[in-house]
Amino acid sequence: MFHRWRIARRNRAIVEDLYQSLVAETRQPKLYERCGIADTFSGRFEALAIHVFLFLRRCRGEARLEPVAQEVVDRFVTDVDTSIRELGVGDQSVPKRMRKLAGVFYERVRVYDGAFGSEDPAAALATALKGRAIGDDAATDAAAALATYMQETGDRLGAVSTDDILSGSLNCGN
User: Fold this and answer.
1) Most C-beta atoms within 10 A of its C-beta, which of 28, 80, 139, 148?
2) Domain-by-domain residue ranges, the chain?
3) Residue 130, strand partner residues
4) CA-to-CA distance for 125 and 35, rounded, in angstroms?
């Protein structure tokens, strides 16, 4: 019994380490200064959604990583829920807002994934980011900078070994 408890606790620690690495990535000033993400609750949600998406993309197709990827998404949802509550949103309206934000996240996943799979990922990502992670009126160079950032971060995550991820390390710091 205690052996299973220790394994579960270690797994939670691994997921927490992975999630906190993704959160740390969202705190880079360049995302807000050069890439056009607003430094607001919504903007920070978008920045985190981008990083969680890139992590999911890295884990896709690897059976050993799929459970970890799902746990990181679950941790993301829990974090957003907690943030909404801390902002003072009433308990009765939190589930409705969470459904909406979950829908927003999965719509982002679908659109960004499609952009990565397009003939010109940089241009497709820049287009996809406008009106989502950055405002419709954002400068074209901000959208291009964020698209480039996403491609570079995706490449860095792609270079992280499966074993490193399973030990809780992303090694994707800048």
Assistant:
1) 80
2) 2-166
3) 134
4) 13
Radius of gyration of the chain (CA): 17
Q: The pTM is what?
A: 0.89
Instruction: Quote the longest CA-to-CA distance of the chain.
Output: 57
CA geometry: angle 70, 74, 41, nearest 5 deg: 130
Two tokens, residue 96: 């409705």
- State both tokens at 63: 């059976």
Residue 136's pLDDT band (boundaries 50, 70, 90)? confident
pLDDT digits (tens, 9 = 90+) for 53-75: 999 999 999 999 999 999 999 99
| For residue 7, pLDDT beyond 60 | no
**How far does CA 35 lie from the centroid of its chain?**
16
